Amino acid sequence: MGTRDWEVPGYTELHLLGEGGFGAVVLARHEPSGTLVAIKYLFTRYLGDPARLAAFRREAEFLSRVDSPHVTRLYEFHEGPRGVAIVMEAIPGVPLREVLRRDGVLPPEAALAVLKGSLLGLAHAHRAGVVHRDYKPENVLVGPGRESKLVDFGIAVLAGTAGLPVGTPAYMAPEQWHGAPATSATDVYAATCVFFQSVTGRRPFEGATADDLRDLHENAPVPVDMLPEPVRRLVARGMAKDAAARPSAAAEFVAELETAAVAGYGPDWEERGRGRLAQRAGALLALSPLALFGAGTAAAPGAAGGLAAAGTGLSVGAKIGAALVAVAVGVGAVVGTIAVIGDGGATPPVGAAPTAEQEAVQVSLLTRTEAADGFHVDARYAHASGLSDPALQEKVNAALAKPLDDFTDYVRAGLLNSTEDPVVTNDATINRQDERLVSVRYDLMVESSQFGNHGGYTTMLLTVDLTTGDMVTAADVFEGVADDQNAMSVLESRILARSPGGYCDGGEPFGGERTPLAPSDLQPWGILDVPALQLGFRADGVVFGLATDARNYPMACGYREVVVPYDEIDDLMSVAGRELLP
């Protein structure tokens, strides 16, 4: 058994959840709020091991980058002379491994529901530049609230990172065995392997040794004949030997999954699948430590994906500590540093420590759940706190909530009498947040055939200036693009330099003629008057969101994003635009 002689202050430990070679995970209660959390400790004997410390820090950093209802959330990271710990969301769920151990297999609809939730979580991670590399049944938690969550980013890496072969052999993609650069396709392969196991009761490849498994993953055909016919093509795509032949992004694979699921199991496949999943998880969860200590099914999060105490205190999306705080601690002649990273959905700031004024501003993702005039809302939106001017904070939050408010009004206006019970839902991602601005991507959807075969949906990029509360547009950032075609053409040349194949992977515009960007593309155009060219910000560059049908591409090409690094485009910026550079 490992040892440690330190506990994170402000918590009462309740139960040892697990212990491995390098550390332990305990269930604890956050004393100010009463919220249950999971705390992952590194054993004391490894505090002097630079590699172990670096891995612990890296896991906390990656968790802080990813904000998704399908990924466990980081609350705090503590590092000091006496210990290192990651404080995370305590999830009322059981590992998929335990569900499969008890039931053997899942109905295809339930397995598809798990895969979809996992792919959505992976999509958020990939968007943040993180590849998980160890997707397996042990790292997927299934909850009685019908959700699944991805956990354990212990061996995750930044996309494009190469190195020694790392992972769990039964689920490792061919390129992973060679230590090739990690990509989103690596995670898609592993998730598809687990889906195969969930449906058939066995892994796609069984080998006596790691070398046997390597040979099978690299050379053996995928045994799709063991699968139900409706999902065979899906699995063949997800487990293609060549990473380039797999879906290039987890989000892309979600669309393929939904098409296959509806065709094979009907439009209500997900409702049935998640219901069966919840039944299986609920029985196992009743025996878990979270149920014993008061976080069983009654407290299980339906929409928010976490545990929240009543009233004020720690909650999903809230921060226990500041965004990034460095505190010098003197113990005799020893001086250490305690770093606390809170989860606000954005990448922690890089570089110099922020000022107290900067630390006061926090942007979190909150959940809105309500019944509204014949439909339901179960969606997330960004919310700012800590601004010193109450009027400014109110203006900022009105702007941040506007996409969800407007989409809800759009659904209300377009909805006919129906027995469908439609649901307004979304994905929300904070792409950048600092003392000057917050930039958010909203993927808004309504699950109703009244808004098209696949429901109504739109993607919005929103950037709000935290010093004024005003929305930031391309016309504000780039000189002349609102009224000068030459300026817009130069801007498009920089965008196309990062997307040399055009705006639709594998697709050509009608007649081979792409419609060039024009100043008119900054005017109201699509659903909710979203312009055909949108602007956002990430830590690494400017995000351009394009409606490809406005560029003369088929509608199937959909929405496309291109990220242009700041140093490739800052010479086109106005004075006001340059002030927004990180």
From TrEMBL:
The chain crosses the membrane at residues 281-300, 320-341. The keyword Transferase applies. Its EC number is 2.7.11.1. The keyword NADP does not apply. Keywords: ATP-binding, Kinase, Membrane, Nucleotide-binding, Transferase, Transmembrane, Transmembrane helix. InterPro entries: Kinase-like_dom_sf, Prot_kinase_dom, Protein_kinase_ATP_BS, Ser/Thr_kinase_AS. ATP binds at residue 40. GO terms for molecular function: ATP binding; protein serine/threonine kinase activity. This is Serine/threonine-protein kinase. It comes from Amycolatopsis endophytica.
